Amino acid sequence: MISRISPNSRDSFQDGTSISGMPYAPAPEGARRSGGSGDLRHGNLTQVLCYVRDHGPCSRHDIARGCGLGISTLTDLIGDLKSRRLVKELDPVRRPGAGRPTRPIDMDGAPWCAIGIDLAHDNVAIAATTMGGEELWLANDPVTLRGTEPEEAFAQVREVLVRRLAEVRADREVISVEIGLPGVVVRDRGQLERAADLPWTEFPIRERIREVLAETGLTGIHVGVANDCQLAGLYAARTEVRLPVDSVAVYVGGLREVGSGLIVSGQIFGGAHGVAGDLAQAHVSGAGGDRPDRLSSVLGPEALLVRSGLLGADEAAQKVIDDPIGALELLRNEAEAGNDQVLSALAEAGSALGQVIDDVLGVLNPHAAIIGGYVGVLSPYLQESFDSQLSERLADPAFSATLVATLETLEPRVARGAAMLARDACLADPLTLTRPLRS
């Protein structure tokens, strides 16, 4: 199934459901977390929080069944989470066919703040949200990191972060921060290995951000790092396409280059070393039977400008670095005007992308393939050749239910995806990152 999703569309893989029409949750399968009583309680609290996050307002019965917990145990857990302002009770709702009205449990998190950072060479975008997912603000600050000395570049980042943290209201407490960066990111070490447009190599970005946070009085909070396109995929899968919790999705997008990522069960799947899902280097058949190309050399924005005959190689490279939106608009405007060379280059790029997604569907059999970023914006001109590559695969009953969704607008997916991952970190460790605020 191929669909297009506009920013205002409510269409998605999973329809929204109110508690009055929600079916009873299935009992969980597989082994439960075990260990000491503290570990068990910690695991149960996380399980409850994630269930409410994923299902929206739920009755206690549904949560208990969905998490495999007894009602008395759940009541105790809900009491703890309410005292920490992580969940709240809503007004009573009468369920069809049920007796007494139930008070649904929903996410709260208003006193706690998560920060998501999208760090590019020319801009720092920061999204602030509550732990319940309410976006408080989204800010963009220009920086000049490319070609700058490493310490001077980080000083610019520090200035932006300190200034924006000062905008968090006094009645909210920052407890989790995630940073999205281009290039190769080693999440478990909190390190940026390399990025083409950033001046850092093997840079301990997590520790340096922690130092800045400590200067502002924020200690003992979660700080994480991730690849920017993986974060964009996380946001697209969970918020824009709204895939079910247990879904597997592949995302292709980016702004200055082809980026991609894998989302498994609502989380980034990094593989053994954190770079799983890197499709930019996938081999594709060259036009006219020529030697194989890499996807990035056919679909990348720089390659498209050159293959379209719009700019020379050096000019195209500089245009994408300095003005990626302008480069995208140039391609789109020429395509709309019917420029044959541009349309031919885009058709070839769509075919190359279709080859790669076809291989991914065969290897991973994901529930969805999501096309976003600049690729999504150009998708109307990629669609015909892209669909042609996938038609045989999607005609197979084993793959016919696969959703192929295109997101045709540029959204701040990285910053919002980083804020989403920051919230997830709190849900995974509520006892450490929060404290009771009321008895």
Automatic annotation (TrEMBL):
Annotated stretches, region: Disordered: 1-40
Entry-linked InterPro entries: ATPase_NBD, ROK, WH-like_DNA-bd_sf, WH_DNA-bd_sf
Any Pfam family hit: ROK
SUPFAM superfamilies reported for this sequence: Actin-like ATPase domain (SSF53067), Winged helix' DNA-binding domain (SSF46785)
Record field: compositional bias (Polar residues): 1-20
Domain of life from the UniProt record: Bacteria
Family of this protein: Belongs to the ROK (NagC/XylR) family.
PANTHER family found in the cross-reference section: BIFUNCTIONAL UDP-N-ACETYLGLUCOSAMINE 2-EPIMERASE_N-ACETYLMANNOSAMINE KINASE, ROK (REPRESSOR, ORF, KINASE) FAMILY
Identification of the protein by name: Putative NagC family transcriptional regulator
Species: Microlunatus phosphovorus (strain ATCC 700054 / DSM 10555 / JCM 9379 / NBRC 101784 / NCIMB 13414 / VKM Ac-1990 / NM-1)
Source organism phylogeny: Bacteria, Bacillati, Actinomycetota, Actinomycetes, Propionibacteriales
